Amino acid sequence: MREQEQIGNRRHGLGDTRSAEGGPPSTASPSRRSSGRTQDIDRYVGARIRERRIMLGLTQQQLADLIGVTYQQAHKYERGINRVSAGRLFEVAQVLSVPVNYFFDGLDQENDRAISPRERMCLELARNFAQIPNERHQEALSQLARVLATDD
User: What is the pTM of this model?
Assistant: First the structure.
């Protein structure tokens, strides 16, 4: 009888509900889904990873190589499709030179707004600046920006 029950459970996507020790069934739901709020947080953390990666001028492939995952996995992290484990988030923080809490900063104020064109332009500017190989050119561009910012 137990074997038929297990086959039926597998057919309906239910796992073996016994505890890891082989004891009585556990009370936890086997197909428990993340709440909407949890998924929102996953997307927020992913967006922060993407934002920081772009600021540093890294591609998704470069980030993936640095943290030891595939390009597809890095993409899924950034989109919030796959949740980033604590250990992996620590690795990402080290690679991107930020503290772990960076990925949660502003989470309380998040209101699902889209990135404005100005914010997108600033991110693109930071990415392009980071890709300038000549430090003298970077310094010249930085001085130009200072002059333009103070121009009345």
Answer: 0.58
